[in-house]
Amino acid sequence: MHLSQTLALAGKTAVVTGSTSGIGLGIATALARAGANIVLNGFGDVAAALARIEAAGVRAAHHDADMSRPADIEALMAFATNTFGSLDILVNNAGIQYVETIEHFPAERWDQIIAVNLSATFHATRAALPIMRAAGWGRVINIASVHGLVGSVGKSAYVAAKHGVIGLTKVAALETARSGVTVNAICPGWVLTPLVQKQIDDLAHRESISTEDATLKLLGEKQPSGRFASVEQIGGVAVFLCSEAASEMRGAELKVDGGWLAQ
Ligand code: NAD
């Protein structure tokens, strides 16, 4: 039977940061189809994202927290419990990218990437854990990246932040190891989302090649499958991490990378 048909997450509340597009929206949709009420967050098309979640027959709300601001993050967590009465699943997904060599990397871009991709995960987890511990059950799912485990040229801030997310995942998993709360990371390779489309467009422009050739080049350099992973596949892994079968997975790094890290 398909996991989503069991509605295993009925009555639970999930906060998915950065979920108005891409992987976040894919995960929010998968959790909604498994029955969870969803708090969306992010700066994209809010109405379209809300409609997509509500189509799954669950309740949905949006909070416009800027994940680079700790006070906003506290407000987001309070909003979830006030709106739906609980906070059971936290998906730390909001993320941004900037590609430049270290010598030319603007310092303010570094600060911004560390704030959104790493510090937000700490602040949100810090706010969520007491609530989950009190309920005796919880899931924290951190969307890291293959770049939490290896580096790539031009991505100093992103790689540093994602390695930090992997470290934070391990510590949070240890600190909750004797509870019903688990903390794990998903490490996607290339997934076709607005964040990656921008890198394809930049490559096409930089090397004066077509978008199709830039796409093949981007995939060919790193991802042995030659294909993107999909947001639906990442969503399915998140639903699995919320299942009973995953109850003793703690501090894991689940790679969904078309073989990137098998090389
Ligand atoms: P995306 O650009 O499609 O989505 C990012 C989301 O985060 C959007 O909803 C955006 O509005 C939101 N966001 C950005 N800054 C924010 C802020 N300050 N506060 C609140 N929300 C903010 O990107 P994506 O590719 O879906 O990336 C999602 C996550 O997956 C990121 O953490 C990214 O690092 C990670 N990831 C992506 C890939 C990939 O190939 N796409 C691979 C590995 C990891």
Automatic annotation (TrEMBL):
Listed GO MF terms:
3-hydroxybutyrate dehydrogenase activity
Which PROSITE patterns does the protein's record reference?
ADH_SHORT
Gene3D superfamilies assigned: NAD(P)-binding Rossmann-like Domain (3.40.50.720)
Q: Which GO terms of type biological process are on file?
A: monocarboxylic acid metabolic process
Q: Which domain of life is it from?
A: Bacteria
Q: Which Pfam families match?
A: adh_short (PF00106)
PANTHER family in the cross-refs: 3-OXOACYL-(ACYL-CARRIER-PROTEIN) REDUCTASE, 3-OXOACYL-[ACYL-CARRIER-PROTEIN] REDUCTASE FABG
Which family, according to the similarity comment?
A: Belongs to the short-chain dehydrogenases/reductases (SDR) family.
List the protein's name.
Answer: 3-hydroxybutyrate dehydrogenase
